[in-house]
Structure formats: structure tokens, C-alpha cells
Specification:
The complex is a heterotrimer of chains A (97), B (271) and C (291). With 97 residues, chain A is mainly beta. Chain A has one domain (4-96). Chain A has one helix spanning 4-10, and strands at residues 36-37, 50-52, 59-61, 71-74, 79-85, 91-96. In chain A, the strands form two sheets. In chain A, strands 1-3-2 form a three-stranded antiparallel beta sheet, with no helix packed on it. In chain A, strands 4-5-6 form a three-stranded antiparallel beta sheet, with no helix packed on it. Chain A is globular, with a radius of gyration of 13 Å. Chain B has a single domain (20-31, 62-268), classed as Orthogonal Bundle (Ribonucleotide Reductase, subunit A), CATH 1.10.620.20. Helix content of chain B is 72%, strand content 0%. Chain C is mainly α. Chain C has a single domain, classed as Ribonucleotide Reductase, subunit A, CATH 1.10.620.20. In chain C, a hairpin with a 2-residue loop joins strand 3 and strand 4 (252-253). The relative contact order of chain C is 0.13. Classes of the chains: A mainly beta (97), B mainly alpha (271), C mainly alpha (291). Chains in contact: A-B, B-C.
Amino acid sequence: MNDPNEQAVLSEVPRQTFELEECGFREVPKKWRKFYRHWEGPGDELGPNEIICPVCKVVIRSKREIRVGDRLYCMPCMSRMIVVLGEDGTLQTDVTY
Amino acid sequence: MSEVDRPEFDSSEFDPHGMNPEDFLDEVHSFEFWFQAVEGYLTDNPYGHESGDEPISDRPDDLTESDKDSLITTLCNYCVGETAALEGASGMIAIAPNRHSKIFLATQVVDEARHLEVFLRRLQDLGVTDPEGEIERRANPTLQVFKRRLLELVKAGDWSAALLAQNVILESMEHAAFLVHATTADPVTAQILNGVMKDERRHLGFGENDLGRLLSEHPGNRRRLADIRHEMDGLVLAVFSRAADDLPGDASMREAMGREYIETMDRLGLV
Amino acid sequence: MADFLNSYSIQRWLELCPQGYLEDTVNGHQEGETEAESILEDDDLRTAAIRSTVQLVVGERAALAASSGLVNLAPDYPSKHFLATQTLDEARHVEIFTERLYDLGVKRADLESTIDNFVNPHLVKFAEVLLEKIDSGDFIAGVVGQNIVLEGLAFSVFEMMETTNRVPNPKFAHTLAGTIADERRHVGFGENRIGSLIKEHPEKKPEVEQMQKDMAYHMLKTFSLSFEEGADTVDKEREAIGDVGEANFHGTDLSSASSQEMQAVLEATVISEFRTRLARIGLEYQAPVGV
């Protein structure tokens, strides 16, 4: 998913969806816990429905594959963000205040 | 007054990313959110650590006398930092510009008071019989200067500067110290530190996000806040420099934490 | 003293409240409970409920400002810890009573204007007397004003409202029951902590008693205006909810009492409590004049 052209093509493809389960993250109310997990460090590979919060470094999870333009919320640190394409072609986030 | 102005968020769907921004802020700044969040990690952890069968003072901790002395000094300084945070957060309630901020800060007041309590308790576990006297004897004077400066900003009613000093700079400083310390601490102290850091995720996030909103509405404040940041940075560096002997930890980790702080300031444009 | 103060810990508060009587509640009541239909369906009753809830929000906002201000003035760690928990209790009360305003149909955008419209001006003055003391850094007067006078007032008002709502509006009665449990702690702290401080600083008595007198004056004016405003809807309320049996509050059956009788029993209860509590900490109740 590093190639911007590949991103553009992907946007035409139906999104993958995911059934989320809790991963031991207990820092938000129970009903929201499955949407977050702890990041285990550089070896921790993210799924297509996961992204790291730039503010608190928790992994944010979605029921859908994450794409450019998606709005995501990090409840543990109360941040709102938009998914953008980084200079290196990876998905990143811009915090919106 | 016959109807509510917007439809309530349907929480039965349980997808936070589908919320509208107002509902999101309503949810995360509420007492209810805090209440259910801390329930997840404080239940069954009295005074911040697992309650074992034997008294905490009887548990083996492999601490030499010198380790113990350094730990006591470090904990005394954590108490100074947490007292500053407690007094800062409680003072900020009066100057907070809206109800959500006031309620969030009230949850932070209890978090900070809990941190102070668990560190005081740990000092007692380590045999300190007069924690208040010990704190006075061992407190890092630069940290005391930081505390005074923070409380001056709060007393002056300067919301954005107080928020920067309290929820961004002080919380970042504490978070960095706790994260590095937790990697080498004895098991009980490490558990306490890890619990405290879970609270700080909320405090840091609130600070950055609220300040970010303020700066996007009033960009003219940026220069003034950058100056305050530089003034406080000097104090933070002096605190860390003095604490280095008592606070074990990996140098690369300290650098990483410094980078996180700089990234936060970059996002806020306070360079 | 130190051991006694240590019972006011955050850990104890966590076990009592979030892990105790507030567990499994949402905004202080059981999940799914709603306001009584009789109130929601009648504009007069709904307006009366909004008016009385506005006074609760304003009172709790004052308590939040006061208790957070007192944290910084507290002379010892256990008092700071307790006042920190009280700060959050008060914030919770602000939140749950504000939520009740929304449940009663107040639009979110209209919250502040609704409060401005319905707030009792004497209640604002009552709060101002207290907050002036805290702004000037007076811990002893602040605790007496907050934890004896304001909390004592809140305690009796909440008890009365809980009694009248228990059968016809269980959702609101449950909300109030949790706040009463909180206020019990706050009043207890006020008495227990401040008693020793008054003994250490007898020179503070005249100033503190004058503050109590000023606060009592505005409190009684608040009651007069509130019961006068509520008098018109008392009968309608009873008609709407039907016979719910006796609602005894300190010897008065609130299900049949007139508005004046209700005011009288509330005033007598609050003042009697003030007298007793103030006497226990070495102060004498000062009756206000001209009210």
C-alpha cells in the first residue's frame, strides 16, 4: 500500500470489513475497548484497519479498512484526526483541533 | 424547548469513528467516560498495584539500600510534581472557558490526587515515616520553581498558558520520567507508574487538543505561548539534568521521549 | 488526627463511589429510566421541573468552583485528597443535573440562556458570598461556607426532592439518592476537619459567623422566591400524578402540604441542621435579619 497510485486504485475497490474483538485495552469504557489496542513497538505490524495515534501512540482500530480521508477518533487521548497519505506513501494521520 | 436540538448518538452501534465531532467531545469529556474508563484499570488495584496476600513491605524487591535511597528521592520529586498538577488542575477549573473543560479538569483533579496518594503510600511502604518532611528535604528546587510558575499562570487566569504549562509541559515531563523509570523499576513501583501513565494519556490529549483548538481560533497567541514554552523548557531541562542520577533508564529511551515532546510542540506550531 | 484524616483517601472514595453505589448507573440513575410522562407531557409541569433543576445546576456549579478552589488552600495532603474527590463529586452533580435539563427538553444550544432565564437571583448572591471567601484564600471560612452551609442546604433540599419524587418519578429520585450519599461525606468532612481548625483559630469566629449569616439570608430569600414561583403548579402536579401515598419529610406529608407548609418545613429543617452542626464545631448559628 506504499504506492500512491495503488491507493487510488484501491479506493475503487470495496473496503474490507472486520469483526473487532477486545485486545486487552482497558483504558476506555467497555463499549469502546475493541476499537483500541496497545502498540507493542516497531515489530508490531498494523492491519489494514489499524493506525497509530500520533498523540498517544495507541493503535486505533476500525471496523473498515482505513483509507485516505477517513475521520478517526482516539478516545484514550480525545484526539480527532483525518487519514492522509504521507510523503513515503504510507497512511498517516493529521490531528484536527 | 419542546425538543432536543440534535439526535442523540446511537451508542448501540458502538462505533466511535461514526460519531459527529460534538458527540465525541461530549462523550470523552464527561464524568461518565472517566468513570467507566478508570473502572477498567483501577478495580482490584488498591493504591495502584495488585493486592497480594502478604503486606507490601514483606514482598521481595531486590532493592539495595542505595537503590532504595534513590527511589525515595525520585518518589519525593514525583510528589512535588503531582502536587503541582493537583493544585494546577484544581485552580484551572475556575478559569476553564466551558462546562466540558471544567468537568474534564475535575476528573483530572482526582487523577492527580490519586497519583499523589499512591506515591505517598509507596514512600511509606519503603519505610518513610514522615513523607511531607522527606519531600521538603529532598525536593528538587527547580521543580519547585516550575510549580510556582505554573500556579502563577493559573492565578493570573491565563487559560491557554496554564493549559500549556500544566497539560502539555508538566504532563509530558512526568510521562517521560515515568515511562523511562518503569522500564527499570521494582515490580510494585512499575505497576504504580503504569497505572499513572494511563491517566496521563487523557491529560496530555486534552491539553494538546484543547490548546490546538484555541490556537487555530486565535493564531496570534502562538508567539506568546512559544515564549512561555521556551521559558518552561529551561526549567524542565534543569529538572531532568538534576534527576538523572536518581532516575535510572536507557538513554535511547530518554531521547525517544524528548522527540515525542518536540513532535507535540511541532503539531501545535509552538517552535 | 492523622489516622482520622487518612480515612479521606482517594482509594476509599474509589471503593465507595465508582466501585460502590454508582456502579451500574448512568448519569446517576439506572440505565433506561426516563423522566415521568406526567412532567414531559404538560408544559407547566415541565417548565416548573426545568426551573427547579436550574437551581440545582447553579448550586452545583458554585460547589464545583468552591471545592476546586479549596484544594489549593488546604493545609495538608489528606484534606487536599478529600477535596479533590469532592471536586469530582460536584462536577458529576453539575453533569447529571445538566443532563436532566436535556431530558426535560432544553436544547443544548439554549442551556446557558435557560439557566440565565430561570436562575433565582438570591441563589447567585448566596454563592457569591462563599466564592469571595475562597478567592481571598480563607480556607476556614471557605470550608464552613461550602461544607457546612452550602452542603447542609443541598443535603436537605435533595432529601425533600427525593421524597417527593420517589414514587412518581423514580429516575430523578435515583439521581438524587446518589447525590445525597455524596453530600453526606462532604458535610461530614466539613464538621470533622474544620472543628479542629476553629479551635486553633478562635479569632476567626466572628468573620465566619458573619459569612454564615449572610449566606443564610440569601438562602431564605431563595426559598421564598422558589416556593412562591412553584405555588401555582403544586396542585396541578398532584392532579397529574394521582394518589401516591404519604411522602413524609420531617413530620410533614409533602403529598398534601401547601406550598407555604413545604417552605416552612424545609426552612426549619435546614436551620435546625445548621444550628446543630455549627455548634459541634464551636460556632453559634447567626439568624439573618429582615427575612
